[in-house]
Design a protein that fits this description.
The chain has about 270 residues and is α+β, with helices and mostly antiparallel strands. The chain folds into two domains: about 140 residues, Fructose-1,6-Bisphosphatase, subunit A, domain 1 (Fructose-1,6-Bisphosphatase, Chain A, domain 1, 2-Layer Sandwich); about 110 residues, 3-Layer(aba) Sandwich (D-Maltodextrin-Binding Protein, domain 2). It contains seven helices and 15 strands. The strands form three sheets. An eight-stranded mixed beta sheet has the order 4-3-5-6-7-8-9-10, sandwiched between helices. The model has no long low-confidence stretch (mean pLDDT about 95).
Length: about 270
């Protein structure tokens, strides 16, 4: 991890919250509005993008241009901008655009800052219910309708007592889906569809596992920072680094992580 002074980390945290505030305002301008429409990024399947996705990232980039012009940016909608500081902001202006279009309050805004080693601080923000999870630089907190609280993962328990989440029932390729189902068959409860909010629930001590495949760097770097700050573990399906995306195994404890790895890789 890059060596940063207390003043520097304070500025990064303040900037991240300014980005989250701007994205919250931008996304709520269009959420649950009857005229909201979406284009699709792919022809083979519906992969939506809305005016709110673009506006959210544009406003965050404008803040970074004013406050942190030396830093790089990687955003879902407008790609990569190189910097000179060794730090890069990784932005997903709406993670869960399908949920956003559907009016569910489980999409979120993902903001993280990374150095050469990976994400060092992250925010998962749910604008509609005004719930913000942050992790890194010695922080692991949620602030929302119930006030401010420390984040901490659930105590270790066997997979047979675990709650497992994934965004889609059809996880990745057919082979990846079969591997996922081996884990799901052993879990106490399996639920779907909450996008980045499921990662926040691990950090908040509500669930035990999230398993996904086919993710991008901007989908995972904020969740990695938040979950690790809360005491959890996030790797790929082989137990290695996953900051660039791909297969994701996020767990509340190393014990459940080990059980899940054994089933994903029989």
């Amino acid at each position: 991890m890059a060596h940063l002074s207390e003043a520097e980390t304070g500025e990064l945290i303040a900037t991240a919250h300014a980005l989250a505030d701007a994205a919250r305002e931008a996304t709520l301008l269009h959420f649950r509005k009857p005229d909201l429409t979406a284009d699709t990024k792919e022809t083979e399947r519906f992969d939506p993008v809305t005016v709110a996705d673009r506006l959210s990232e544009e406003r965050m980039r404008a803040i970074l241009a004013a406050r942190r012009p030396q830093d790089g940016i990687l955003g879902e909608e407008f790609g990569r901008s190189e910097g000179t500081s060794g730090l890069t902001w990784v932005l997903d202006p709406i993670d869960g655009t399908r949920g956003y279009l559907s009016g569910t309050p489980t999409w979120g805004v993902l903001i993280s800052v990374r150095d050469a080693s990976g994400p060092i601080y992250g925010i998962i923000d749910q604008p509609y219910i005004r719930e913000r999870f942050e992790g890194g630089f010695g922080r692991a907190e949620v602030n929302g309708p119930s006030g401010r609280a420390k984040l901490a993962v659930r105590p270790a328990r066997p997979l047979s007592q675990a709650i497992l989440f994934s965004t889609f029932p059809e996880v990745g390729t057919p082979a990846e889906g079969a591997a996922f189902r081996r884990v799901a068959a052993q879990a106490k409860l399996t639920r779907y569809g909450t996008d980045c909010y499921a990662y926040a629930l691990i950090a908040a001590g509500q669930i035990d596992i999230v398993i996904e495949a086919g993710l991008q760097a901007y989908d995972v770097q904020a969740p990695i920072a938040v979950i690790e700050a809360a005491g959890g573990i996030v790797t790929n399906w082989q137990g290695g680094p996953c900051a660039e995306g791909g297969q994701i195994l996020a767990c509340a404890s190393r014990e459940i992580h080990a059980e899940a790895l054994a089933l994903l890789n029989p």
